[in-house]
């Protein structure tokens, strides 16, 4: 933490350099160690999700196709895949709250969506409301590629 908190920063306002001040927390924008630290934190979230699955709190989606598959992650984008039973939903909500408290990161629920398959609209809306997310639907774009629930 010494490297993070011992730096100094100055802001340029109207073309003039202001006074330097000490960083109290966090990294400067563009800091080369930022992606590495993000990976440590993202790994912690995935470890929490994996432990919840092993403990039986979260049931992965289509376990016969993807053994143990509860999530997909690429860069800063995480997709959680789980059965929509009340216990799994409550566990995911608790896990995300614990992650927020432990990491200090805020989850942007305005950018988060619940996407369901084979459920009636009312049940889907209930799940989205429980997780404080908006309800999305197919087709979606993931990493720039269209994904649909039907064969192309």
UniProtKB/TrEMBL annotation:
- Where does the Reverse transcriptase domain lie? 1-147
UniProt-listed Pfam families: RVT_1
Which PROSITE patterns has this protein been placed in?
A: RT_POL
InterPro entries (UniProt xref): DNA/RNA_pol_sf, RT_dom
- Which residue ranges run through the membrane? none
Source domain of life is: Eukaryota
Name of this protein? Reverse transcriptase domain-containing protein
Q: Which organism is it from?
A: Triticum urartu
């Amino acid at each position: 933490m010494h490297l993070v908190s011992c730096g100094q920063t100055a802001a340029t306002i109207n073309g003039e350099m202001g006074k330097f001040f000490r960083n109290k927390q966090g990294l400067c924008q563009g800091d080369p160690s930022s992606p590495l630290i993000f990976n440590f934190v993202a790994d912690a979230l995935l470890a929490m999700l994996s432990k919840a699955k092993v403990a039986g709190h979260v049931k992965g989606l289509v376990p016969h196709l993807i053994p143990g598959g509860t999530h997909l992650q690429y860069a800063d984008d995480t997709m959680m895949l789980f059965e929509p039973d009340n216990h799994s939903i409550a566990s995911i909500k608790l896990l995300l709250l614990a992650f927020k408290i432990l990491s200090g990161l805020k989850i942007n629920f305005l950018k988060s969506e619940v996407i369901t398959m084979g459920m009636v609209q009312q049940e889907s809306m209930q799940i989205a409301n429980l997780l404080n997310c908006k309800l999305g639907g197919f087709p979606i774009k993931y990493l720039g590629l269209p994904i649909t629930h039907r064969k192309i």
